């Protein structure tokens, strides 16, 4: 019988929040800020918005298992909540608490005094929208055909969240550059493809989902490769890397290994192969984000972001990422 007061171990909580994948959030939120600001300056806004992204992500992971408790008891009985190692009440308090914390941290990040960075409500607004979409996905949307779209929307908002503290307002209206919106949509479409590919993973997947997910992932990568080209001359004046064929090639080389895996899954839809492909696709978000960090902040900060691959891969060998 489940212990209603069980708080679980550190390992249980690491599994509950899918700890390896949080490094993809650190990467895309951090890279968005670095791209727009040219570095982690002002540091207070950078730290607050990264913590906000992590809080919202962990809230989504925890509430996912709270909403899915009965299904997990039947299909995934080893999960921390389903196995009774963490009580549903404890998990629910943590999930809702982190959701609120994420919105508060994001809102505060827009009002931390900083030279050259005006006060803005945009981070709080994006965080509130992201929190609402997280709850919608974890709750009513997950069983529906639009679930992958909702998940992609979460990743799109996550990237925009990272840039939000450094985006200006004109007459109270936020100004989001076209290239930045294009990159955010690219990440969203890429994750939408991963989510589609992952549907029915445990049973070998459905061929339509496998085909659709593969194509959508490709579209996402193409968007990521060409979105910086939507920038104006003034917007890319301080960038450390020239936008053009070299950047397109870089994104293509980063994405190629996971695309090869996804192609093989089309021919051999084995559950283990699908799971490994999903894991690789999620981890690829980190080097993709590093490429955009390099655009705005140069190779040093790109390597800092890329280094997140090390703990992500190390932990993913011990903890499930889906």
Structure characteristics:
two-stranded antiparallel ribbon, 2 strands, transferase, 322 residues, mainly alpha, transmembrane, UbiA_prenyltransferase, UbiA_sf, Tetracycline Repressor, domain 2, membrane
Give the ordered list of helices and strands: HHHHHHHEEHHHHHHH
CATH structural class: Mainly Alpha
Helix count from the secondary structure assignment: 14
| Count of DSSP strands | 2
| CATH fold assignment | Tetracycline Repressor, domain 2
How would you write the strand order of the largest sheet? Answer: 1-2
| Radius of gyration over all CA atoms, rounded | 19 Å
Residue stretches low in confidence (pLDDT < 50, at least 5 long) are none
What is the straight-line distance between the termini? 26 Å
What is the CATH homologous superfamily assignment?
A: UbiA prenyltransferase
Oligomer: single chain
InterPro entries: Prenyltransferase_related, UbiA_prenyltransferase, UbiA_sf
Protein name: Prenyltransferase
GO cellular component, one term: membrane
Pfam families: UbiA
Describe this structure as you would to a colleague.
Helix content is about 70%, strand content about 0%. It has one domain: UbiA prenyltransferase (Tetracycline Repressor, domain 2, Orthogonal Bundle), CATH 1.10.357. A hairpin with a 2-residue loop joins strand 1 and strand 2. Helix 9 (about 205-225) runs antiparallel to helix 10. It is built from 14 helices and two strands; from the N terminus they run H-H-H-H-H-H-H-E-E-H-H-H-H-H-H-H. About 45% of the residues are buried. By secondary structure, it is mainly α. It has helices at about 10-15, 20-35, 45-65, 70-75, 90-110, 120-140, 145-165, 180-200, 205-225, 245-265, 270-285, 285-295, 300-305, 310-315, and strands at about 170, 175. Strands 1-2 form a two-stranded antiparallel ribbon. Its main location: membrane. Keywords: Cell membrane, Membrane, Transferase, Transmembrane, Transmembrane helix.
């Amino acid at each position: 019988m489940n212990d209603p007061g069980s708080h679980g171990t550190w390992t249980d909580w690491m599994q509950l929040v899918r700890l390896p994948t949080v490094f993809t959030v650190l990467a895309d939120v951090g890279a968005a800020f670095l791209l727009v600001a040219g570095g982690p300056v002002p540091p207070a806004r950078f730290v607050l918005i990264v913590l906000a992204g992590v809080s919202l992500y962990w809230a989504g992971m925890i509430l996912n298992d709270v909403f899915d408790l009965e299904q997990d008891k039947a299909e995934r009985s080893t999960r921390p909540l389903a196995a009774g190692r963490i009580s549903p009440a404890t998990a629910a308090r943590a999930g809702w608490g982190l959701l609120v914390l994420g919105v508060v941290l994001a809102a505060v990040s827009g009002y931390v005094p900083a030279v050259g960075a005006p006060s803005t409500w945009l981070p709080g607004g994006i965080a509130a929208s992201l929190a609402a979409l997280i709850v919608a996905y974890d709750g009513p949307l997950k069983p529906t055909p639009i679930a992958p779209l909702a998940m992609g929307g979460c990743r799109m908002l996550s990237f925009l969240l990272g840039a939000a503290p450094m985006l200006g307002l004109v007459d109270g209206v936020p100004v989001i550059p076209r290239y930045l919106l294009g990159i955010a949509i690219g990440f969203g479409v890429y994750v939408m493809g991963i989510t589609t590919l992952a549907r029915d993973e445990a049973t070998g997947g459905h061929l339509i989902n496998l085909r659709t997910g593969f194509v959508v992932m490709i579209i996402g990568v193409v968007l990521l490769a060409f979105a910086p080209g939507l920038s104006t001359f003034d917007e890319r004046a301080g960038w450390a890397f020239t936008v053009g064929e070299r950047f397109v090639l870089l994104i293509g080389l980063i994405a190629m290994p996971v695309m090869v895996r996804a192609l093989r899954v089309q021919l051999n839809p084995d559950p283990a192969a699908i799971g490994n492909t999903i894991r690789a696709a999620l981890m690829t978000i980190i080097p993709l984000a590093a490429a955009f960090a390099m655009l705005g902040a140069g190779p040093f900060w790109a390597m800092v972001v890329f280094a997140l691959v090390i703990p992500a891969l190390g932990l993913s060998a011990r903890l499930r990422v889906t």
